[in-house]
Amino acid sequence: MGTKITLGKALNLGLRRAMEHDPKVLVMGEDVGRLGGVFRITDGLQKDFGEDRVIDTPLAESGIVGTAIGLALRGYRPVVEIQFDGFVYPAYDQIVCQLAKMHFRSQGRINLPVVIRIPFGGGIGAVEHHSESPEAQFAHTPGLKVVACSNPVDGFWTIQQAIAAEDPVIFLEPKRQYHAEKAELDESVTPGPLFASRVVRPGQDVTVLAYGPTVKTALKAAEAAAGEGRSLEVIDLRTLSPLDMAPVLASVRRTGRAVVVHEAHVNLGLGAELAARITEECFYSLEAPVLRVGGFDTPYPPARIEEDFLPDLDRVLDAVDRTFEF
Questions:
Q1: In the 8-state DSSP scheme, what is residue 90?
Q2: Cα–Cα distance, 39 to 269 (Å, whole number)
Q3: Are 156 and 144 in contact (CB under 8 A)?
Q4: Of 197, 120, 202, 131, the residue nearest 158 (C-alpha)
Q5: What average pLDDT does the chain have?
Q6: Which end of the chain has a smaller Cβ tally under 10 Å, C or N?
Q7: What is the CA radius of gyration of the chain?
Q8: Which residues contact 217 (CB under 8 A, 6 or more apart)?
Q9: Which residue from 186, 157, 141 is spatially nearest to 3, judged by alpha carbons?
Q10: How far is the C-alpha of 202 from the C-alpha of 7, rounded, in Å?
Q11: Which regions of the chain does DSSP assign to beta strands (E)?
Q12: 2 pLDDT exceeds 80?
């Protein structure tokens, strides 16, 4: 039997395993060492691996990522923590213009195995720049892999798989899930592949697509819908670039209806790409347009009204109802 752990603890254990496995793995970021990170994800790592491998950096995201690129060029595998989603923009130039392009620029001769950990999403009652969902901006950039974990078991395995990958990985962690419910981790199992979607609740009537923080929302909606006699199939996308469409298309061909749920703004979000791909591949199977549920097209609001901004159970169920009106 495994032990029950939170997502925060799972990521901590995953980082520890990766550092034990490969001395070239480094962790760096603001307050990741002595403090153990603002969310305590790197707690205890500096004490056990030393200041040369768990590095407290200045408050300078562009410098952090630039340094990580240099370290990767010299054979290291840096894991960078961006303290909050909204703080990633000072490093955006380094990520998009250097990190994402170096492999292509060198005609495949150079690999940059850098993982950039970003706590993302809302629901923690924080101020501006602390609750954003910038995933589409990275998924839109060729040369980057983008992963979004949603639960403790996935967190433990996917952080290790991301560190082992030869390409740069933007690793998104739903911060409101860090210290929420626990799940049982069995380290003896063989994990599935990193870049793969997964059906987390089978159903017959509507396909609901989610990732990161909205997987829990979608599962709650499916439970509520079951009480009304509707069967929702929930798919955790898990990876946003590349998108693993095979389970999605198989599901939609069976249900004929699809709803995409994400916290990011609906306009030009991941839901738009998913809707386009589903429409291209499943046009004759669809009974209704692919509907999107997400944040409104405004900057992230003050904490007091964030629950009105974020997609919730009612908005997901409303979209499910609307798919049956066509």
A1: G
A2: 27
A3: no
A4: 197
A5: 97
A6: N
A7: 20
A8: 210, 261, 311, 312, 313, 316
A9: 186
A10: 24
A11: 3-5, 25-29, 54-56, 77-81, 115-120, 145-148, 169-174, 183-185, 198-201, 206-210, 232-236, 239-241, 258-265, 291-295
A12: no
**CB contact set of 118 (below 8 Å; sequence gap of 6+):** 82, 85, 88, 134, 170, 171, 172, 173
Taking the model in full, what pTM does it have?
0.97
| 223-261 burial: b if 16+ Cβ within 10 Å, else e | ebbeeeebebbbbbbbbbbebbbebbbebbeebbbbbbb
Residues paired with residue 81 on neighbouring β-strands, in sequence order: 29, 117
- Which active-site residues does the annotation give? 130
Q: Give the side-chain half-sphere CA count within 13 A for 285.
A: 20
Residue 68 has pLDDT above 70, yes or no: yes
pLDDT in tens, 295-320: 999 999 999 999 999 999 999 999 99
Spatial neighbors of 304 by CB under 8 A, at least 6 apart, are: none
In the chain, what is the greatest distance between 2 CA atoms, to the nearest angstrom?
A: 60
The β-bridge relationship of strands 232-236 and 198-201 is antiparallel
- DSSP element (H, E) containing 309: helix 306-309
Residue 27 burial class via C-beta count within 10 angstroms: exposed 0-12, middle 13-18, buried 19 and up: buried
Give the separation between CA 53 and CA 68, rounded to whole angstroms: 12
Q: Is 201 helix (H, G, I), strand (E, B) or coil?
A: strand
Tokens 């923080």 identify what position? 213
Per DSSP, the three-state class of 178 is coil
Looking at residue 52, the DSSP 8-state letter turns out to be: T
Q: How confident is the model at residue 1 (pLDDT cuts 50, 70, 90)?
A: low
